[in-house]
DNA sequence: TATTGTTATACTCTATAACTATA
DNA sequence: TATAGTTATAGAGTATAACAATA
């Protein structure tokens, strides 16, 4: 092993470490900023984000990798804020569909707009870098 | 605006969205896995990660972007587990230094090793992609 | 007076287990 | 019996405000 040319595994680990640091440490202030701006904790933001259409409680729990009992509380709080409502599902009366209210839909749109605003360090990259990132992570998401 | 060549702002937003999805949605199971594996919640992992050397409570709070009252509880729980201890700081008796125990140091090493293991989707990238990622995010971290 | 860290309080998230209504 | 969702409970994270010890 040549010290000047690290193994591929080392290279991957270095790159991964830098990315973790960027997203989970340097990016933390932005998470806190959105939390305060919308007065929505991350799990509430996640539920709002999932509601592109009405979805059953269980489906929300599945996508959030948490127990469905948590979803009850999260949806309760979103309901108290007037952002979502529970509806009956046709065909199975055990199922409750969570649907956005008009206010919830407006907040979801604004939240997504803010969440997807790239930070300066990304926005300033070259077209070549941006295209490469887009390709790498779109591909990673479909694997 | 040509539909086939999106503006740079759009390109940046697309790339950023894919990255957010990859790290915060697709990556969530790995976060939960480490949580269970070490029985350490993310904030406890973060404190352990910061302790490359003994640090004052306030410095931990600063790096975690949270109130110092939270650190009291987190350090209490790490102390009960025998992973860290509070020490007096020389020169200012108000300050308490949080230091790893031997057991804490061993767990920190293992935790960092596991955290920095790149997922398959990254490990499988070409050398060229990996080098590009390394360059982009190292640079982003120093800005 | 100002700063460091703790305590008190309230709310949210998280999991597990027991429960209700429905299938 | 099995499933969808809720309730009960306990532990952890978060913030704010009030406090003790020290500077």
Integer-rounded radius of gyration of chain A: 20 Å
Low-confidence residue ranges of chain A: none
Name of the level-1 CATH class of chain A: Mainly Alpha
Average of per-residue pLDDT values of chain A: 95
Terminal Cα span of chain A: 31 Å
**What is the CATH topology classification name of chain A?**
Arc Repressor Mutant, subunit A
Largest interface: A-B, 46 and 46 residues
Derived from helix and strand composition plus strand pairing, the structural class of chain A reads mainly alpha
Order of helices and strands of chain A: HHHEHHEEHHH
Residues in helices of chain A, as a percent range: 55-70%
CATH architecture of chain A: Orthogonal Bundle
What is the percentage of strand-forming residues of chain A? 5-15%
How many independent structural domains of chain A?
Answer: 1
- The tally of helices of chain A reads 8
For the biggest sheet of chain A, the summary is:
3 strands, antiparallel
Instruction: State the strand order across the main sheet of chain A.
Output: 1-3-2
């Amino acid at each position: 092993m040549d010290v000047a040319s690290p193994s591929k595994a080392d290279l991957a680990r270095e790159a991964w470490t830098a990315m973790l640091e960027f997203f989970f440490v340097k990016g933390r202030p932005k998470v806190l900023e959105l939390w305060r701006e919308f007065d929505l904790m991350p799990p509430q933001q996640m539920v709002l984000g999932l509601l592109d259409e009405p979805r059953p409680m269980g489906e929300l729990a599945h996508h959030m990798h948490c127990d469905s009992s948590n979803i009850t509380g999260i949806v309760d709080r979103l309901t108290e804020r007037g952002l979502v409502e529970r509806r009956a599902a046709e065909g199975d009366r055990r199922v409750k569909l969570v649907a956005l209210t008009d206010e919830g839909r407006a907040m979801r749109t604004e939240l997504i707009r803010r969440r997807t605003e790239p930070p300066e360090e990304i926005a300033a990259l070259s077209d070549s870098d941006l295209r490469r990132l887009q390709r790498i992570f779109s591909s990673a998401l479909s694997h």
